[in-house]
Amino acid sequence: MSQYTDTGAANQQWQLVQVGTAPAPKYAGYLFTHFTGENTSAGEQVYFALSQANDPTRWRQLNGGRPVLTSTVGTRGVRDPFIIRSPHGDKFYQIATDLRMYGNGNWDQVQRTGSKSIAVWESTDLVNWSAPRLARVSPDTAGNTWAPEAYYDEGLGQYVLFWASKLYSAGDPNHTGTTYNRMMYATTSDFRTFSTAQVWVDKGYSTIDSTLIKHNGTYYRFTKDERSSSQTPCGKFILAEKSTTILNRTYSFVAECLGNNAISQGEGPLVFKSNTDERWYMFIDEYGGRGYVPFTTTDLNTRQWSPVSGYAMPGRPRHGTVLPITQAEYDRLLQRWG
């Protein structure tokens, strides 16, 4: 045994290093970030709502029903807001489609010459947010960059960002040809620099609005089938697939036509696990109708998503995200915008 004199030098001091991700906090409710549509001048901004404690079917609008985050960059309109907590729980990223359809209405044009960037905000506490910035993610061949979402994958040690783009031929710089939406992806660690965009989902027809959740080592992906009802009975409804690896190009089929038992058409699915039960919720946006309608299941590997009865949405929310939050976060949000 050797005994050393205490010199107080750096090589004799313990260095505490954080290993892995922080333990999951106990959640006390949910934050719902969404937009409200293109029918009003302020509808394409980011709105916040809080659940009634841990009940994700009862919601209250925050900030008096006015936007909490407003885009001052790009098109100055944002749709499809998506919020994600960092793996260590110390930062939040709010991202969104850079698109303003109010006063426009030309859906064909915005898929040919639309933004190649997403809007990004950052926060450490959900109430103090950075100014918005644009982050370019799509290639020159893309005509649009729609409904960005992200998933932090521990195996990759990166966020996987994914979105929908129509891709045109490199020989068609003005994007005059005929094409369809594919789901794209890129990886990032900071939502500032991104890997080169790659195709993630290519069905040979338009698919948009993918969302992702992981359970017991399996990734479950939910995507809008953009085909018309005359092309397929499941057109304009949700397709469910699964994979054991996130970037797999060939997810396995689980179910299709999700939502057609309760809504006229659906897009913008969001999915999250209950804070209190072994249960999942999916909100599907009945665009042109009621906005979000909630469904629930106790098994992600199923066609059986039951519509929730007796729910109370915060106004008529459109495509967004539900984020589990702690009691401290809930209280801060309520104090700031309640």
TrEMBL record:
Keywords on record: Glycosidase, Hydrolase
Any single GO BP term: carbohydrate metabolic process
SUPFAM superfamilies according to UniProt: Arabinanase/levansucrase/invertase (SSF75005)
Alphabetical list of PANTHER family matching this protein: ARABINAN ENDO-1,5-ALPHA-L-ARABINOSIDASE, ARABINAN ENDO-1,5-ALPHA-L-ARABINOSIDASE A-RELATED
Pfam families attached to this UniProt entry: Glyco_hydro_43
Gene3D superfamilies: Glycosyl hydrolase domain, family 43 (2.115.10.20)
Family matches, as InterPro entries: GH43_arabinanases, Glyco_hydro_43, Glyco_hydro_beta-prop_sf
Pathway the protein contributes to: Glycan metabolism; L-arabinan degradation
Family as reported in the entry's similarity comment: Belongs to the glycosyl hydrolase 43 family.
Designated name of the protein: 1,4-beta-xylanase
Phylogenetic placement of the source organism: Bacteria, Bacillati, Actinomycetota, Actinomycetes, Streptosporangiales
GO function terms (MF aspect): hydrolase activity, hydrolyzing O-glycosyl compounds
